[in-house]
Specification:
Shape of chain B: globular
Distance between the termini of chain A: 58 Å
Largest sheet of chain A: 5 strands, mixed
Number of domains of chain A: 5
Helix content of chain A: 40-55%
Number of strands of chain A: 17
Number of helices of chain B: 4
CATH architecture of the largest domain in chain A: 3-Layer(aba) Sandwich
Number of helices of chain A: 25
Strand order of the largest sheet of chain A: 10-9-13-11-12
Oligomer: heterodimer
Shape of chain A: globular
Structural class of chain B: alpha+beta
Radius of gyration of chain A: 28 Å
Number of domains of chain B: 1
Strand content of chain A: 5-15%
CATH topology of the largest domain in chain A: Rossmann fold
Strand content of chain B: 15-25%
CATH topology of chain B: Glutaredoxin
CATH superfamily of chain B: Glutaredoxin
Chain lengths: 596, 118
């Protein structure tokens, strides 16, 4: 059997300008000429981060990278490399970016090929419980590098230059946060890793910690060195048992090898890390509430300023970043701020991890360069909606984010564009919704969540979300009145403006964005008392069609005797008796019962 | 004076040697996904099959666990990596399939195409 190859062509925006599509068709012709189409697979990848040397072509196995490939080089590459297994030396470039290792293993899978893995670079390729595995992929080299030849201000300057922004959701410039904390004079400072991932459907941080815990520790050490802190705390929710287990092992391993503790790697820098478990309150993802929780108080937010960078844990200057932000730090140090900032858009640099879920063919973890459009994630990586259903909306940012309709699919993913479209980047939840979901119900679900999780400290959030939920419940049970829609809008805006912390300030977003983008559905619920997705029980009816063969199965399961009819004749549902329990719908084997 | 950078390079070389001494250079490396999601999908049982095979005398194989690569609906996932060949990524592996991978792919070099993630 002939040896198999995969040729990967970079289809990033820069390489595309250098005509990667044209290259592809030439390669195809050439392969056909040599009758190689069945042993060589061609695939287009997302940006491979080597734009200055594009067009890029990678041949696997071996992960041989060719740079600045022109059309006339193709015959030579096919003849030498593919036919004779002799790579063309003059075109090979040596690029060793940290994230490339992932692509050596997974690059030829369509789902992964379109991604760019920076924060998740080691997830799925190393044993997370072995320090040796992390060391073998240049682990702790970034820490050693800053300890060897960078002063704290130089580290901060590098992070600032990279353009990295907080991946927890709000997108505050990370370098600036570091600088502000470093500037404060204090005998003690703290570094915190926020691993209190609480959005329903989000699992990016859990996967990062379970797949590559040392990267978080290394990032925190670098942060500690940069701001002059000696103590770090990882705040992780207690229900992440495996993640806790792995991070505990990793911390112990780091101490054993001298990456934590006194005089790290023989330098003057000492740093300790402690793990604190959160009981799993959504509000504790908010930085001031998180600090209170670590201090042993109730997890409630307080007004800012003073920001934690001035007055944080135990009143000391504190640097808080989330897991994904920390995971980016070693890459910036090793691969350089210039490289990092070449990825992404003007104001949002690097990549973002999303937990792609909902009504989508390929669910999973997706890390893409900023500027990738929602359509590319949903259709190229996620491969669209299963079962031939129609796309209705995509929800980003979890309970703090919004629902975007089809017209926003070409929105590039960056902090500003998503905010402009009426949603937020958030920590990275991305839920795809198809035509079978009711948007009112969806908004209600998220509001139920935030209303439950509201800590109760400030009135707008505590009372306001409750009232909003009451209105939504009214609408979804057919008791909505005309004023309700305006009232929802007014209340939502008021809660956004007057709540104390991020939870309340963003809680109305799912409602406000669906009100804006799917107002017709709300109006249908209120005025026509109809739910087009057949989700809100009271707002649709069951009816028996002429497919009915008169078996009587539905009548047997009806608890209210609403179904009548003679055997072998079409049965009938009396709507005034029907309680929409759905038993008959499930019992019918002939699809004769419809929701109307 | 030895700088931290020199120290870490030495540590890395040692780490790589340790990994090699555990059989990393075997002709096949097998990785089984072992994150919460993979375990929930049944990867512990899959791992057990491979572990038992190795304990029972399957040689020239380096077996390791790994984190979640993020291909959720195809979990549990198993990769068979062989130098000089495209790494084979299997999805939806259960204990029976794991046994078949050992018999066909690992022992005889036959890739089971139907389970490969494309």
């Amino acid at each position: 059997m002939k040896k198999e190859y995969v040729i990967t062509l970079c289809d990033g925006p820069t390489c595309m300008r250098n005509r990667s599509k044209e290259l592809k068709s030439i390669i195809q012709e050439e392969l056909q000429r040599h009758n190689l189409l069945d042993t060589v697979r061609i695939m287009l990848s997302g940006c491979l981060g080597m734009c200055s040397k594009g067009p890029i072509l990678i041949i696997n196995p071996g992960y041989i990278i060719y740079g600045e490939v022109s059309l006339k080089d193709i015959p030579e590459i096919i003849q030498q490399h593919i036919l004779k297994n002799k790579p063309v030396a003059r075109l090979i470039i040596e690029e060793d970016h940290l994230y490339n290792r992932f692509f050596r293993i997974f690059g030829d899978v369509k789902f992964f090929g379109k991604q760019m893995r920076i924060a998740l670079r080691n997830c799925g390729i190393i044993d997370p419980e072995k320090v040796d595995d992390y060391l073998s992929v240049r682990g702790y080299e970034a820490l050693a590098k800053v300890l060897t030849d960078k002063t704290p201000p130089q580290v901060i300057a590098e992070i600032k230059k990279s353009g990295l922004r907080g991946r927890g959701g709000a997108g505050f410039p990370t370098g600036l946060k570091w600088e502000l904390t470093a500037k404060e004079k204090s005998d003690e400072k703290f570094v915190i890793c926020n691993a209190d991932e609480g959005d329903p459907g989000a699992f990016m941080d859990r996967s990062t910690i379970e797949g590559d815990p040392h990267t978080v520790i290394e990032g925190m050490c670098i942060g500690g060195y940069a701001i002059g802190a000696y103590k770090g705390i990882i705040y992780i929710r207690a229900e992440y048992s495996l993640a806790i287990n792995r991070i505990e092992k990793a911390v112990a391993g780091a101490y054993e090898n001298g990456f934590l503790g006194q005089n790290i790697l023989g330098s003057n820098f000492s740093f300790d890390i402690e793990i604190r478990l959160g009981a799993g309150a959504f509000v504790c993802g908010e930085e001031t509430a998180l600090i209170h929780s670590i201090e042993g108080s109730r997890g409630m937010p307080r007004p800012r300023p003073p920001y934690p960078s001035v007055e944080g844990l135990f009143g000391k200057p504190t640097l808080i970043n989330n897991v994904e932000t920390w995971a980016n730090i070693p890459v910036i140090v090793l691969d350089g701020a210039d490289w990092f900032s070449s990825i992404g858009t003007e104001k949002s640099k690097g990549t973002k991890v999303f937990a792609l879920a909902g009504k989508i063919s390929n669910t999973g973890l997706v890390e893409v360069p900023m500027g990738t459009t929602l359509r590319e994630i949903i259709y190229d990586i996620g491969e669209g909606i299963p079962n031939g259903k129609k796309f209705k909306a995509v929800q980003t940012g979890g309970p703090s984010g919004g629902c975007l309709s089809e017209e926003y699919l070409d929105t590039p993913i960056d902090y500003e564009s998503l905010a402009k479209a009426g949603s937020i980047m958030g920590s990275g939840g991305m839920i795809v919704i198809d035509e079978d979901s009711c948007m009112v119900n969806m908004a209600k679900f998220f509001l139920e969540f935030t209303q439950n999780e509201s800590c109760g400290k400030c009135t707008p959030c505590r009372e306001g979300t409750k009232r909003m939920l009451e209105i939504l419940t009214r609408i979804s049970t057919g008791k909505g009145v005309a004023e309700d829609l305006d009232k929802l809008q007014r209340l939502g805006m008021m809660i956004k403006k007057s709540s104390l912390c991020g939870l309340g300030q963003s809680a109305p977003n799912p409602v406000l964005s669906t009100l804006k983008n799917f107002r017709d559905e709300y109006e249908e619920h209120v005025f026509k008392k109809h739910c087009r997705a057949h989700v809100c029980k009271q707002l649709f009816n069951y009816a028996i069609s002429d497919k009915c063969i008169g078996c009587g199965a539905c009548k047997k399961v009806c608890p209210t005797e609403a179904i009548s009819g003679e055997l072998k004749q079409q049965y009938l549902i009396k709507q005034n008796k029907c309680i929409q329990c759905g038993n008959c719908f499930k019992a019918c084997k002939f699809q004769a019962i419809n929701k109307v | 004076m030895v700088t931290p950078l020199q120290k870490i390079k030495k540590k890395r070389a040692e780490a790589i040697n340790r990994i090699i001494s555990k059989g990393y250079l075997s002709s096949k490396r097998v990785y089984v996904g072992m994150a919460t999601c993979e375990i929930a999908a049944g990867s512990k049982e899959v791992m057990q099959v491979f572990q038992e095979a190795v304990n029972g005398g399957l040689t020239d194989v380096y077996l390791s666990q790994k984190g979640c690569a993020g291909r959720c609906n195809l979990e549990p996932t198993v990769e068979v990596v062989e130098e000089g060949k495209i790494p084979v990524k299997y999805g939806k592996i259960n204990p029976e399939r794991a046994k078949e991978i050992i018999e066909k792919h690992i022992k005889k070099g036959q890739v089971i195409r139907d389970w490969v993630i494309k």
